[in-house]
Amino acid sequence: MLAAVGLAVLLAIGVAALGLVLGTGNQTEDVPGRTGPLALVSIDAPSAGSPECTSLVEKLPVGLPSGKDMLPRREIASPAPPAAVAWGDAKHDPVVLRCGLPRPSELSVTSQLRVISDVQWLQLPGSGSSTWVIVDRGVYVALTVPDDAGTGPLQDISTTVRDLLPKQPVKTSP
Predict the structure, then answer these.
(1) What is the pTM of this model?
(2) Alpha carbon of 146 to those of 95, 125, 126, 149, 171: distances in Å?
(3) Can you name the residues that pair with 68 across neighbouring β-strands?
(4) Which of 39, 73, 106, 132 could form a disulfide with 77 if both were Cys (CB 3.0 to 4.6 A apart)?
């Protein structure tokens, strides 16, 4: 019995030593919160069930560019908020899209809007990420993007929205 336990311990030590010597290659360790279903807090999204949001969610790309990498779609934990989609992997913080939100209170006549692929966005800066809100379509769509993701997510979502949802005037007052 002692010999079997001793052999198992030696085998475990040998495997651990081999792992230290050979390293992990280019594999990344899973960072907690970056794998598995993504838990999203429910927020007010009165138009999430609209035909526009349903159509948009169906047509969103399965992957989004983030720097030189491509982020795959990420499962959202139950209960998933309606009209919400996420992309991400073990190396990157998630990119999250929510459709059907209320008009952002920050939107005013003097708001600085950015136009990407003929879609107007309002940036709401945050800590480590920014939320960009599409303000010139029949529904408000928010895309939360980590600061290190680059402009790829905005460009791809802009193209999808431009091709799918009709442009409307920006409503700068409630």
Answers:
(1) 0.81
(2) 7, 10, 9, 5, 27
(3) none
(4) 39
